[in-house]
């Protein structure tokens, strides 16, 4: 992801092609359980008719789902849904589909465990590389979290941009390859945790994010690590509370 792409990050995924729409519908159906593990998908002719697509579009969609680990084609059997241990949860679409169909507290706990492995380390590296201009941009996103002049969605998008930029500033090329995963993880968790009760938490959220910026500005990697860890742990707590609230209706 390029630096300029971060400024245009928005919630949601725009499906621009027929191929993408087919992948989306089948992927959601698998993750949501319409096609459970071990089930054989409808045949090509039935799927072509269902989605009103050509054989070539359907085959490309199936290749994409195969690469994500969701399906496998067997001769004389058909295309079968694979066991969940084969699903690539680091794939941004697969992770997003889980959030779309609903996640469990255990799923969120494990997701945040991964965030804690990645983001505090990225922040520590960013503290040794970030420029004053980088810090100004981070501060701008942090301050937007407390703005009453923008919508809840825009505040969530500011939080998303803050964390993606902080990760990118680490300069680690392996993080570059995981930004899609990080985006989906953040987007899903933020949509759960930053519900309309954000107004009551706004001050603390801004302070917590500004503490990260200040640590990065001081070139203090350990403080950047610790403050980022605190923000992620706070996000875990509010995401779990959000799931509980959803369950209660």
Describe the overall structure.
There is one protein chain. The protein has 249 residues and is mainly α. The chain has 2 domains: 69 residues, Winged helix-like DNA-binding domain superfamily/Winged helix DNA-binding domain (Arc Repressor Mutant, subunit A, Orthogonal Bundle), CATH 1.10.10; 146 residues, Four Helix Bundle (Hemerythrin (Met), subunit A) (Up-down Bundle). Helix content is 68%, strand content 3%. It is built from 12 helices and 2 strands; from the N terminus they run H-H-H-H-E-E-H-H-H-H-H-H-H-H. Strands 1-2 form a two-stranded antiparallel ribbon. The longest helix has 28 residues. GO terms for molecular function: DNA binding; DNA-binding transcription factor activity. Keywords: DNA-binding, Transcription, Transcription regulation.
Q: How is this structure best summarized?
A:
The chain is mainly α and 249 residues long. It contains 12 helices and 2 strands, in the order ααααββαααααααα. It starts with a helix and ends with a helix.
Features:
249 residues, mainly alpha, Arc Repressor Mutant, subunit A, Four Helix Bundle (Hemerythrin (Met), subunit A), 2 domains, 12 helices, 68% helix, elongated, DNA binding
Order of helices and strands: HHHHEEHHHHHHHH
Q: Which structural class do the helices and strands define?
A: mainly alpha
- Output mean pLDDT: 90
Alpha-carbon Rg, integer: 20 Å
Strand line-up across the major sheet = 1-2
CATH class of the largest domain: Mainly Alpha
Task: State the separation between the terminal residues, measured CA to CA.
Answer: 37 Å
